[in-house]
Amino acid sequence: MPAPSSQPFCASSIIGTGSFMPEKVLTNDDLSKIVDTNDEWITTRTGIKERRIAAADQATSDLAAEAARRAMADAGVKAEEIQLIIVATVTPDMFFPSTACFVQKKIGATNAVCFDISAACSGFLYALQVARHFINTGNRTTALVIGAEKLSSLVNWKDRNTCVLFGDGAGAVVIRRAEEGAEAPGRVLSTVMGSDGNLADLLKVPGGASACPITPENVESRPNTIHMEGRETFKHAVTRMLEASQQALEIAGLKAEDVSLVIPHQANARIIGAIAERLGLPEDRVFMNLDKYGNTSAATIPVALDEANKAGRLKKGDVILLVAFGGGFTWASSVVRW
Q1: What confidence tens digit (pLDDT) does each residue in 195-216 have?
Q2: Model confidence over 52-88: pLDDT tens digits?
Q3: 3-state secondary structure the chain
Q4: Per the residue annotation, which of 28, 121, 163, 236 is the catalytic one?
Q5: Percentage of the residues of the chain whose pLDDT score is greater than 70
Q6: Please, which of 7, 15, 255, 266 could form a disulfide with 75 given CB 3.0 to 4.6 Å?
Q7: Is there a catalytic annotation at residue 295?
């Protein structure tokens, strides 16, 4: 395989993490007053107890900007040092400009190139790999990679099979070039990505864009909300996340037993449990916070990474496995040496 660039190889390291969750908490008991469900039904099927809901005047960029500020503070990086901003989201502020441009304005990162990535729940890891490529070419040295969602804006609150799953939030990392051989904790060792558009209909928001604009005739059917075939999504999620994890570890020259902590996409406790079991890893090596936040799509991994970091779960030299699966279908996995 030819080298991806004629430039000398430049490794990328995560040097700061940050997250921001809205104040409003929506519990399972709260949902039971809105739709035919209850705490036991939701908890046993998903592991979710509550989720955060953004205020009406909070856009995705507001959540993303605050997560970015916290990641920059953690990294000791100023706004003018940021040269690239990538926001992974399926709930942009608007079709255009990009949410990343709004984040740029809000944090004052005047020297950054900005754009969004749409890969659903895999979006953050897709964005991380894209940022690595920018850094690898030598054109950029410091980047903000953000996963942010206001999924409450896409939820059909009459559909108990989907409305119980999703929440709002944002997480961010600062990544910076680290010359090969240099001491650089947080180094991204490998990333694997995949997609299968043949399965796009199993998890989607069918309306609201060019294929199905919202009209007076279809507005009552709520086509601009999340539609999901749960059983099929579950099956493919377990298979693809396991494969991506194994491939990313192999590329990094590591095995599952070398992993100190798995930070998986926080969609369903059963999916996470199945992945851990098939990798042969005990529960204490798997990070979960979906009981507090539910599925925040592209935000789940950076939020969980920040919480694990701030809680002291990540030690120097630890091998961290990040893995996600989302609509598209898309999937991705990254291995990080902390």
Answers
A1: 999 999 999 999 999 999 999 9
A2: 999 999 999 999 999 999 999 999 999 999 999 999 9
A3: CCCCCCCCCEEEEEEEEEEECCCEEEEHHHHHCCCCCCHHHHHHHHCCCEEEECCCCCCHHHHHHHHHHHHHHHHCCCHHHCCEEEEECCCCCCCCCCHHHHHHHHHCCCCCEEEEECCHHHHHHHHHHHHHHHHHHCCCCEEEEEEEEEHHHCCCCCCHHHHCCECEEEEEEEEEEEECCCCCCCEEEEEEEEECHHHHHHEECCCCCCCCCCCCCCHHHCCCCCEECHHHHHHHHHHHHHHHHHHHHHHCCCCHHHCCEEEECCCCHHHHHHHHHHHCCCHHHECCCHHHHCECHHHHHHHHHHHHHHCCCCCCCCEEEEEEEECCCEEEEEEEEC
A4: 121
A5: 95
A6: 15
A7: yes
**Does 265 participate in catalysis according to the annotation?**
yes
pTM over 0.85: yes
Close Cβ partners of 253 (under 8 Å, ≥ 6 residues apart): none
Question: Nearest 5°: CA angle at 229, between 96 and 221?
Answer: 60
Contact between 159 and 165 under an 8 Å Cβ cutoff? The reply is no
Whether pLDDT at 2 is above 80 = no
- Alpha carbon dihedral 288, 291, 297, 302, in 10-degree steps, equals -40
Looking up tokens 């507005």, which residue turns up? 219
111: annotated active-site residue: no
Which amino acid appears at position 7 of this protein? Q
